[in-house]
Predict the 3D structure of the following.
Amino acid sequence: MNAEIEQHSYQHQVGHRSKSDDILKGIETHRRILWKNPIGSPAGIITKESLQLLESPGILYGSSIFPTYFPGRFNRLRFPTSPFRIKNSSLLEIPFSVVTYIGKN
């Protein structure tokens, strides 16, 4: 059986510097355990720095945005719900926690 395993995060650090360290530690842990580079990774909120961190080891796609509504916490319904190329980047963003259609055609 084949299954894709990609890195997520190491500890969900939220500060600017600690977030970068978290991304790098997650990528390194993925390499150490699975003996290969990850090709997909979320970065949480997309910034220029997080894009560079993800592109440098050859990450091809991310799932960093979630166009959802969480009452009292956030409203991200303005974000795209379909995969798209991030401007000035090689990454494909695949928004997560979005269901656009369930049912038979």
Remarks:
- The chain has two helices and five strands.
- The first helix runs from residue 16 to 34.
- The mean pLDDT is 77.
